[in-house]
Amino acid sequence: MCGKDSQKAARMAEMMLAKSPRTNDAAGTNAPARPRILVAEDHDDTRLLLRLLLERRGFDVVEASDGEEAVRLAESTRPDLVLLDGGLPRLDGLAVTRRVREREKAARVPIIFLSGHAETVARAAAFDAGCDEYLVKPDGLDGLTTVVARHLARDGQS
User: What is the pLDDT of residue 140?
Assistant: First the structure.
């Protein structure tokens, strides 16, 4: 990102972090393992924003910057949830969703599809590919932690 996009991402990060309370760090205690979230996003600024937001909420974050890496990490790191950008290089979000759903180790992980497209057709394609939720960037990111918590609770992870 450059120029206005970077400034917009920085402002959005500041607003989201201000709204997001910091959680206590469970390091060194007998607390259960923190849920692991795979963030697959090719824009460095957006990926950083998501990582900071999620880590501040107490999640472990694994990052992928392209679709092939996302599929590999979904299987090897066994995340509890995937935040997936629809416009990744190498494999787009639809292809990543389909491939993750084909893999036995990762087939059941909740996938939250993040897209800049609000059209019904784009949303339907993502659900047809197998995603569990569809959020439109940047507006849908405001409620992201609520959506993440809902899907992790459904799977008994939070």
Answer: 65
Using alpha carbons, list the distances in angstroms from residue 38 to 6, 18, 29, 64, 77.
22, 23, 24, 7, 8
Determine contact, residues 67/137, Cβ cutoff 8 Å. no
Residues of the chain scoring pLDDT < 70 = 1-32, 140-141, 155-158
Environment class of residue 120 by beta-carbon count within 10 Å: exposed (0-12), middle (13-18) or buried (19+)?
exposed
The predicted pLDDT at position 118 comes to 92
| Number of Cβ atoms within 10 Å of the Cβ of 147 | 19
Q: Does domain 35-154 have CATH number 3.40.50.2300?
A: yes
Nearest to 112 by CA among 9, 14, 38: 38
- Residue-level pLDDT at 83: 97
Q: How far apart are CA 149 and CA 66, in angstroms?
A: 25
